[in-house]
Amino acid sequence: MTTDMLKYVWQFILLCLLQVLIFNNLNLGGYVNPFPYIYLILMLPISMGRIPVLLVGFFLGLTVDVFSNTGGMHAAATTLIAFYRPLYIKAQSPREGYELTAVPSIKQFGITWFIPYALLLVVMHHSVLFLLEAFRFSDFFHTFLKAVLSSGLTMVIIVFIEYMFVNERRR
Questions:
Q1: Are the CB atoms for 32 and 153 separated by under 8 Å?
Q2: Hey, what domains does the chain have and what are their CATH numbers?
Q3: How far apart are the first and last CA of the chain?
Q4: Which of 47, 92, 158, 167 has the most crowded CB, counting CB atoms within 10 A?
Q5: Helices 2-21 & 50-68, crossing angle to 10 degrees?
């Protein structure tokens, strides 16, 4: 239990640093901004309770907000996906349920389960984040395009992380 907690603390720090130092400075044409730090919320154990997931989501977003000077936008978006994550997992659970040690990943559940799970939460996060950033519906199509393109790049990065790092460690 303690080693798992240390692993998640290390991943929290690493993903926040990568987001703040690298990915926040990556802006492709004004439309594509990847936010792979939300991968931490996606990969939390299924057995983790709703309140701890919400707290992790809030503090992850708040940490990125503090270093990005974005005034709570990331905290709102990550808390929202942390809220909907258990609902999606419960809706997609098999009749016999999940193992207590299960972690949502391509290796454990397969790509046909992981992609819709991750894509829904990533698109939800990016949509809320960019709508809060614009804070008006007059630029709806511009905001929608940013959310779709940024979600695509974020998904590519998340799948890359899954295949390059996560699956190798678990073999």
A1: yes
A2: 2-170 (1.10.1760)
A3: 20
A4: 158
A5: 30
Name every residue whose Cβ is closer than 8 Å to that of residue 58 and which is 6 or more positions away in sequence. Answer: 75, 78, 79, 82
CA-atom Rg of the chain in angstroms:
16
Contacts 24+ apart (CB under 8 A), 65-72: 67/16, 67/20, 68/20, 68/24, 70/133
Distance CA 57, CA 97 (A): 24
| Spatial distance between the Cα atoms of 121 and 123, rounded to a whole number of angstroms | 6
Q: What is the pTM of this model?
A: 0.89
**Cβ neighbour number for residue 114 with a 10 Å cutoff:** 19
Tally of CB atoms within 10 A around 162 = 20
For residue 168, give both structure tokens.
Answer: 């190798």
The pLDDT tens digits for 22-71 are: 998 887 877 899 999 999 999 999 988 899 999 999 999 999 999 999 98
Q: Which residue has the tokens 């720090």?
A: 13
How many helices, marked H, and strands, marked E, lie in the chain?
A: 8, 0
